[in-house]
Amino acid sequence: MSRQTLHIHGVTRSFPAQGKGAPTLALRPTDLTVAPGEFVAILGPSGCGKSTLLRIVAGLDTPSGGTLALDATPIRGPGAERGMVFQSYTLFPWLTVAENIAYGLRERGLPRAEQRAIVARFIARTGLAGFEDHWPKQLSGGMQQRCALARALANDPEILLLDEPFGALDHQTRELMQELLLEIWQADRKTVLFVTHDIDEAIFLASRVLVMSARPGGIKSEVVVPLPYPREWTVKTTVEFAALKARLMGDIREEVRKSIG
Ligand SMILES: Nc1ncnc2c1ncn2[C@@H]1O[C@H](COP(=O)(O)OP(=O)(O)OP(=O)(O)O)[C@@H](O)[C@H]1O
């Protein structure tokens, strides 16, 4: 069960100039607090700094200013308590499905029997039974992302950082993946930060949706999603869902327009 609160204070990120160009201010001072067990979706126009923010929380990038902490412990690099899943398929091609899922467990030196038990549990939870010995290239896109999710979850992180994890999938597969993730989150209630371009996906999954402004990005607005859990796909057809969608669409359209000048 997640226990630590994520504190982001005044975090900024500026990328150095390339050649004669000016430096890119990707993220203006950003404050965000995420309580244990929250599911926070982040929406915003392309290039507004969503991935930058997520990578900083993951410890894969360093902020130019500001501080991040889990409770009182500063975040200064990657850590096992934060698991990340990216949009593009990032499985190790030289490892089988089971070996990919076991990767972090093996790195941490868990006994083989324990590794096998954990892998079996996440194979079952992500519907990959029968594919344990397949290579990533033998899997469909949806299966590869299920494996990436299983690999992240197997390490039992407190916080899951998901950067458009379903962005490359077809519509039907994407909807099934949303339901799978929701089912897992409803059972485990891990803290989730989820970057997406898809407003329906954000509302369906999240307990809170943040909208980022056009670059330099910052948090422009936030909407607490009052739809009760457990949620079924049919919630997407409700009046409440449509009202939330209309509000978020208004906010995002304004930012997209700014971002394309
Ligand atoms: N390593 C880097 N070096 C230079 N500029 C970068 C780097 N990474 C990101 N940027 C710039 O920072 C800005 C924010 O990028 P980021 O990838 O965080 O946006 P995003 O909101 O995730 O975009 P998208 O929705 O298109 O994935 C962009 O202008 C991008 O060009």
TrEMBL record:
<protein>
    <submittedName>
        <fullName>ABC transporter ATP-binding protein</fullName>
    </submittedName>
</protein>
<dbReference type="InterPro" id="IPR050166">
    <property type="entry name" value="ABC_transporter_ATP-bind"/>
</dbReference>
<keyword id="KW-0813">Transport</keyword>
<feature type="domain" description="ABC transporter">
    <location>
        <begin position="6"/>
        <end position="239"/>
    </location>
</feature>
<comment type="similarity">
    <text>Belongs to the ABC transporter superfamily.</text>
</comment>
<keyword id="KW-0067">ATP-binding</keyword>
<keyword id="KW-0547">Nucleotide-binding</keyword>
<dbReference type="GO" id="GO:0005524">
    <property type="term" value="F:ATP binding"/>
</dbReference>
<dbReference type="InterPro" id="IPR003439">
    <property type="entry name" value="ABC_transporter-like_ATP-bd"/>
</dbReference>
<feature type="region of interest" description="Disordered">
    <location>
        <begin position="1"/>
        <end position="22"/>
    </location>
</feature>
<dbReference type="GO" id="GO:0016887">
    <property type="term" value="F:ATP hydrolysis activity"/>
</dbReference>
<dbReference type="InterPro" id="IPR003593">
    <property type="entry name" value="AAA+_ATPase"/>
</dbReference>
<dbReference type="InterPro" id="IPR027417">
    <property type="entry name" value="P-loop_NTPase"/>
</dbReference>
<dbReference type="Pfam" id="PF00005">
    <property type="entry name" value="ABC_tran"/>
</dbReference>
